[in-house]
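We keep the chain:
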Amino acid sequence: MKKISYSDAGVSIDEADRAVSRIKSLAQATFNQNVLTGIGSFGAAYQLRGWKKPVLISSADGVGTKLKVAFMTGIHNTVGEDLVNHCVNDIMVQGADPLFFLDYFATGKLSAPVTAQVIEGIARGCSLNGCALIGGETAEMPGLYADGEYDLAGFIVGAIERKSLITGAKIRKGDVLLAMPSTGLHTNGYSLARKLLFEVAGYKPESKVDELGCTVGEELLKVHRSYAPAVRALRDAGILRGAAHITGGGITENTPRMLPAGLAAEIHTKTWTIPPVFELLRKTGNVPVDDWRRTFNLGVGMILAVSERKAAKAEALLKKAKMPNWRIGRVVEAKAKKRVVYA
């Protein structure tokens, strides 16, 4: 009778060992004194030190179909940083400092070099944001993913002192809304963007587009920006009342998530120049303006709410943190259930 091994079923334990060996060194470079276990334990241990009444804030997310662009270009060392920064921004809107991160990487046939590139990006993102990559899962599942493709997800935990937790409850009518710029599409709207650029317009990843000043692939792989230093500056000064990470759903869907009931955001559309990639997408597909605003961030990565009296101080702190910003609007009374009004 023929002997059948795990490798005959499409799973290579040897390749997994090679991948894990590289992952260990990348992850350990992000460790700090709070990490109590090494990579390879069944569970990761992290000790909270120096906190009085900490509130843990957690979030899980993915990179979406931006991964398709990584597959098309063969560039895999940026999507991991996208993932970390996205998750960091999601917990920073509540004021939480990132503590540790775990990833999930799944593919049909494991390639140690590709896996290492992805984890390289994750480790870089963790190091830049001051959090430890303490664990994760690398799964090889033949038949579930197309050749050369993988999926990627992440889980982050952060902490904030209870008294400093940012909930948006202090936001009032008349508050100023400050916007911080995105670096391109970040990690949202890629299904529509890929359809418009690759199918409708017929571009290739290597196509140079004058409006963009770079290739299509380079534009679409721009790394999702982390706003942690900027948010932390306003939080520590005690002047941040609320924050909204502008991800899937755009300004239209995300801004109301920080607002108390009965309030709305009045967005002044002439206060910023929308980056060329978003105009290119709109024109290519004749995309309705409402859909365009709900699909893409339009160059706005995060919106912060501060009192009008403290707005100038907030702007000065953001400038000191080297974060460009502008007054994108104000908080108004909600009418006819509309939570965002474009003016």
Remarks:
- The first helix runs from residue 13 to 28.
- The mean pLDDT is 93.
- The chain has two domains: 7-164, 176-342.
- The CA atoms of residues 213 and 219 lie 9 Å apart.
